[in-house]
Specification:
- By secondary structure, the chain is α/β, with parallel strands linked by helices.
- The chain has an 8-stranded parallel barrel, surrounded by 6 helices. Strands 1-2 form a two-stranded antiparallel sheet. It has a two-stranded parallel ribbon with strand order 3-6.
- It contains 19 helices and 12 strands.
- Helix 3 crosses helix 7 and helix 5 (99-113) crosses helix 18.
- Helix content is 50%, strand content 11%.
- It starts with a helix and ends in a 15-residue tail after the last helix.
- The radius of gyration is 22 Å and the shape is globular.
- The chain has 2 domains: 5-66, no CATH class; 70-356 and 415-446, Aldolase class I (TIM Barrel), CATH 3.20.20.
């Protein structure tokens, strides 16, 4: 880890050269084999914020030089809306822990399968409990792309940029403003795909669907307008909306139409601007799956008819890519090939990868025990009366990734390699089932890489 400006400058000598807002790669082999590991460790763990920021900037600008450019997936989704790009479902991958190593597993599988249509994302809640701000997450993913030799558009997404229902009830303006602040931070960090989730303030006690959805479509339009006002020149950020909160009642076509029609009307009041490009709905899943008393995951019945029906209406009547499925990583393997056949636009995957890490035979038993002891000591209040110990731990262990982040990054190379191989196998499986193999060319056809210039931070000037 570089801890001073002098160490950082000396460390990049002969490998990277800063020239204004650009970074030339002088020795790609040395960058991939040595320097990138030191840069990302500095970008995540250095105690000096200026050095940390400089390392993140170097990673991002070196990535651009190598053709790894943070991009919006919207143009591809517009093609899906026109039915020019069909037959696949885009996986959106949440990495909660050892992100640099997990992302390498994603890229290895993607390069092997010539996969171009895939997204890295992190949710508002995950940013908190995994201690990964958007700029850090973007740096880790970009560094992994450099490490593995990936080239192409990089789709970074803010997942569930959510309105907290309880806080909204107490102070609506303050809660909306906190979401706006996160959106600004994410876009500055290179996130050019943002999923707005104001479905949390849908009020099903109201007598009509329009009244039930009003808070949702009004807030969604307000946040869309903010995004359009601050997105970089030449980039149209892909914005997602949500109408059925995951874990609640299943969404209907009527609810979708009423939401979309009123959302569009609200957006018109704010000017002529593009709206959302996809819609998240509820089809019967729950985030993380439903743990049984013994800790196993219950089988769920997904309403594929709803996915197909709303996706079709979304494309035909509104030009959207289609519907988005959340809470899917813990589904049985045989379910995944059904998403492309129902023309589901996007599928969000998270907990299954967390489970691979924690439950790997290679994950040190002592570290797992310390994580569980921490949860039992500090998060005991989150246990519900009806939960068994196994259910409590399964639901809560995701919150061990933040406090033990450095311990996990510092695991022996042999351990990280073994876990990385297990993750890679799962990503390869998912890419095949979701039919995104050989999508590099179709992504290149619609998504044009556009660099967003940025000036070097003070240590590198």
């Amino acid at each position: 880890m570089f801890q001073t400006t002098e160490q950082l400058k000396k460390g990049i000598e002969g490998v990277l050269k800063v020239s204004g807002g650009n970074v030339a790669v002088l020795n790609e082999s040395k960058l991939r084999n040595e320097l990138i590991d030191n840069l990302i460790y500095t970008a995540v763990f250095c105690s000096d914020e200026n050095i940390k920021t400089a390392a993140r900037w170097l990673i991002r600008r070196a990535g651009v030089t190598l053709g790894i450019v943070s991009s919006s997936i919207r143009a591809l989704y517009e093609a899906m809306g026109r039915k020019e790009a069909t037959g696949f479902t885009v996986p959106a991958i949440n990495l909660r822990g050892i992100t640099y190593y997990g992302a390498q597993a994603v890229f290895r599988a993607a390069v092997k399968g010539k996969v171009g249509a895939f997204i890295f994302e992190i949710a508002r809640s995950e940013i908190g409990y995994t201690e990964q701000r958007p700029a850090e997450y973007a740096a880790a993913v970009t560094a992994a792309a450099i490490k593995t030799g990936f080239r192409g558009p990089l789709f970074l997404q803010g997942d569930h940029f959510q309105i907290n229902a309880k806080k909204y009830t107490q102070d609506p303006a303050a809660e909306v403003e906190s979401t706006k602040a996160l959106i600004r931070e994410a876009i500055a960090g290179g996130f050019y795909n943002i999923d707005i989730d104001s479905s949390t303030v849908v009020d099903l006690s109201k007598p009509t669907i329009k009244e039930q959805q009003k808070n949702n479509y009004v807030i969604n339009a307000e946040l869309t307008a903010l995004i359009r006002s601050i997105e970089p020149g030449g980039i149209t950020i892909s914005v997602g909306g949500e109408i059925g909160e995951v874990g609640g009642k299943n969404t209907t076509v009527e609810e979708f139409r009423i939401f979309m029609d009123n959302y569009r009307e609200e957006l018109k009041k704010k000017g002529d601007m593009p709206g959302i490009s996809k819609i998240s709905i509820q089809t019967g899943t729950t985030h993380g799956g439903v743990p049984l008393p013994d800790g196993a995951i219950a089988q769920v019945k997904i309403d594929f008819d709803t996915l197909e029906d709303i996706s079709e209406v979304a494309r035909n009547d509104y030009g959207l890519a289609g519907a988005v499925q959340h809470g899917a990583s813990t589904l049985p393997n045989e379910a995944f090939d059904k998403f492309p056949t129902t023309q589901t636009a996007e599928i969000h995957l998270a907990t299954g990868f967390q489970n691979i890490i924690y439950d790997s035979d290679s994950f040190p038993a002592d570290l797992k025990r310390r994580v569980y002891d921490y949860i039992n000591t500090n998060l005991r209040g989150e246990k519900k009366d009806k939960d068994t110990e196994e259910q409590f731990m399964y639901k809560t262990r995701k919150k061990g990734f933040g406090p033990f982040k450095k311990d996990m990054w510092d695991l022996p190379t042999s351990v990280l390699t073994a876990i990385g191989k297990q993750l890679e196998d799962q990503f390869e499986f998912l890419f095949n089932r979701l039919n995104v193999i050989n999508t590099v060319d179709i992504v290149a056809r619609y998504v044009k890489k556009l660099d967003v210039p940025s000036e070097p931070p003070s240590p590198l000037r």
